[in-house]
Amino acid sequence: MDACQFGRPRVGGVYVIAADQVALVESGTSLAKDRVLLALDELGIPRDKVRWIFLTHIHLDHAGGAGALLPHLPGARVVVHPRGAKHLVNPSRLVESVRAAVKERFPLYGEAIPIPEERICQAKDGDRFDLGGRTILALDSPGHAPHHLCFLEEEEGLLFTGDAAGLFYSGRLIPATVPPSFDLEASLSTLNRLYSLNPKILLYTHFGPRAGREGLSEYGELLVWWVELVKRALGRAGEEEVAVEEVLGELGRAGWPVDDPVVREDLAMSARGAMIYLRRRKGG
Ligand SMILES: [Zn+2]
User: Fold this and answer.
1) Looking at the predicted structure, is the pLDDT value of residue 69 above 90?
2) pLDDT (mean) for 74-80
3) Would you state the pLDDT for residue 46?
4) Which of 43-52, 94-103, 162-171, 267-276 has the lowest mean pLDDT?
5) What is the rounded distance in angstroms from the CA atom of residue 284 to the CA atom of residue 281?
6) Is the whole-model pTM more than 0.85?
7) Ligand 1 midpoint to CA 233 (Å)
8) Distance from C-alpha of 284 to C-alpha of 279, rounded to nearest angstrom
9) Could you count the other beta carbons within 10 Å of the beta carbon of residue 263?
10) 243 C-alpha vs ligand 1 centroid, how far in Å?
11) 3-state SS assignment for residue 122
């Protein structure tokens, strides 16, 4: 279903897995809560049948609404990477990091309501969840963030990519290399591993399905090109925000939809995240 993230269609999604144990993948922000509940009603799914909310990672556009949904989904537990769990119980550091990264767009990310520890299930790589008719395999997938999981629905080969395979807007892959923890090498090995699992359909949180696994290898190539592009712009410009504008200018000339405000903001944030990565790599 479409979470209408930032008030826009086809930007952020929440998936509903219909099985004996109903599951959501992602929650959207807390601002999406009513839409998620309405979607369940429209699908004829009683709220107490929802047993799991699988979160690919704890960034607020993926996980921020889980705390707001839980009181309405009395049988549900939240599945999250062990490194993300404590930030769901106490979201204050997470909220501050989002505020720093997105600045004036912060109100669009809603609020993060703390999640009681007993409703959190920490998933390790290789953990399987039997929903009755569908099996969900948790896959440690660092790169976009160190606390990222992808989820593979094994019967049909559906891979919920979160942000590990980039953003996919209107047929175009967009880098998701946001601050503070993007790591190129980790991303590339995650993409190789996901590719080797031979998923049949990629399900992007941002946004929608894409048949085949080629999107994974394409994204790996895009990331290498992107980090190089940002590195060159930074070398020329010296100053980071000037370099961000240079990158956007270059992409605009190459036909990227940089006049779309959502795409522009995503690209600017990803450029900043790539610079943090480059600095870290240089320092270490
Ligand atoms: Zn993210």
Assistant:
1) yes
2) 98
3) 97
4) 94-103
5) 5
6) yes
7) 24
8) 9
9) 20
10) 22
11) strand
Looking at residue 199, its pLDDT comes to 98
Tell me the pLDDT band of 284, cut-offs 50, 70 and 90: low
Q: Which residues, chain by chain, have CB under 5 Å from ion ligand 1?
A: 59, 163
Rounded distance from Cα 238 to ligand 1 centre (Å): 27
Q: What is the mean pLDDT of the chain?
A: 96
Pairing of strands 201-204, 158-162: parallel
Q: Between 214-237 and 240-253, two packed helices, what is the crossing angle to 10 degrees?
A: 130
Determine the distance separating the centroid of ligand 1 and the alpha carbon of 164, expressed in angstroms: 8
pLDDT at 9 over 90: no
- How many Å lie between the centroid of ligand 1 and the Cα of residue 147? 10
- From edge to edge, which strands make up the β-sheet containing 50-54? 15-17, 22-25, 50-54, 77-80, 120-122
DSSP line for 5-20: GGG-TTS-B-EEE-SS
Judge whether 32 and 140 are in contact, CB under 8 Å: no
Instruction: Report the separation in Å between the CA atom of 44 and the middle of ligand 1, taken as the mean of its atom positions.
Output: 30
Distance 138 CA to ligand 1 centre (A): 17
Residue 177 has pLDDT above 80, yes or no: yes
Q: How close is the Cα of 197 to the center of ligand 1, in Å?
A: 22
Structurally, at CATH architecture level, domain 5-219 sits in 4-Layer Sandwich (3.60)
